[in-house]
């Protein structure tokens, strides 16, 4: 405890998956802009920081990443609230965060892989997050997560839609919906993907020429476009 300034407060960064242009996730996060937010929604309790020290790949987290229980970091993977699986977690990675962001995002890719956060048709969502000291900016834990490819309570699966997949136009995230579901009002007629080397500047115009009606661009939080979904 810092006896001059009060307890050190640690926050959870925000990341997540969303439809480009329809959610704060064209690159921001599940909880929108972390910025200088110091509300309870992102504040990590001391017990949760301690629990994070014991977390490992394969452990699960809820959709919001941070549990409502201030004594809990990870949750049982069989728990109905389990949504993400940790794929890697690194303590004291030697990174400094500012306003909830890491200036050099290569540090994220070094830990989580180049595809983290990318929207890849037919694959579960991936993301990253961190626990950091709001006073110093020191990152205590940097971790990588992947969605459990199983339907949630609403029957929606956190897997980027692929050719033949169905979606709901009411969703603001890249869920797949069973085509027999009443909410499934959109079908992906073709998922066009770009080569990894082209993600920074792909030929979107050339891709959408293949779409006979509407389309979505698969743009992520790092400003990359991994593909185009032709829909009807």
General shape? globular
Distance between the amino and carboxyl termini: 57 Å
How much of the polypeptide forms β-strand, as a percent range?
A: 25-35%
- List segments where confidence is low: pLDDT < 50 over at least 5 consecutive residues: 1-8, 14-40
Overall mean confidence score, pLDDT: 84
Helix content: under 10%
Q: Nearest-angstrom radius of gyration? A: 18 Å
Explain what the structure shows.
With 232 residues, the chain is mainly β. The chain has two domains: 10-147, no CATH class; 156-231, no CATH class. The chain has helices at 46-52, 106-112, 204-208; strands spanning 10-12, 43-44, 60-62, 82-91, 126-133, 139-147, 156-157, 166-167, 176-177, 186-193, 214-219, 225-231. The protein has a six-stranded antiparallel beta sheet with strand order 2-1-5-6-4-3. This is Septum formation-related domain-containing protein. It comes from Glycomyces terrestris.
Descriptive terms for the model:
232 residues; mainly beta; 2 domains; 6-stranded antiparallel beta sheet; 4-stranded antiparallel beta sheet; disordered N terminus; Septum formation-related domain-containing protein
């Amino acid at each position: 405890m810092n006896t001059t300034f009060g307890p050190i407060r640690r926050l959870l960064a925000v990341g997540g998956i969303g439809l480009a242009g329809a959610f704060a996730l064209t690159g921001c996060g599940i909880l929108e802009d972390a910025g200088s937010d110091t509300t309870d929604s992102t504040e990590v309790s001391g017990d949760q920081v301690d629990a994070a020290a014991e977390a490992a790949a394969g452990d699960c987290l809820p959709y919001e990443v941070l549990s409502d229980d201030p004594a809990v970091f990870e949750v049982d993977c069989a728990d109905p609230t389990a949504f993400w699986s940790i794929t890697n977690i690194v303590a004291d990675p030697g990174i400094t965060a500012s306003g909830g962001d890491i200036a050099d995002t290569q540090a994220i890719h070094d830990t989580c892989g180049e595809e983290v956060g990318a929207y890849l048709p037919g694959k579960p969502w991936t993301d990253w997050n961190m626990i950091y000291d709001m006073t110093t900016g020191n990152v205590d834990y940097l971790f990588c997560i992947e969605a459990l490819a199983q339907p949630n309570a609403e029957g929606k699966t956190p897997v980027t839609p692929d050719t033949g997949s169905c979606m709901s136009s009411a969703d603001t995230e890249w869920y797949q919906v069973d085509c027999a579901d009443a909410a499934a009002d959109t079908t992906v007629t073709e998922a066009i993907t770009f080569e990894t080397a082209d993600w920074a500047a792909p030929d979107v115009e050339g891709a959408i020429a293949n779409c006979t009606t509407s389309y979505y661009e698969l743009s992520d939080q790092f400003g990359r476009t991994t593909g185009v979904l032709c829909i009807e």
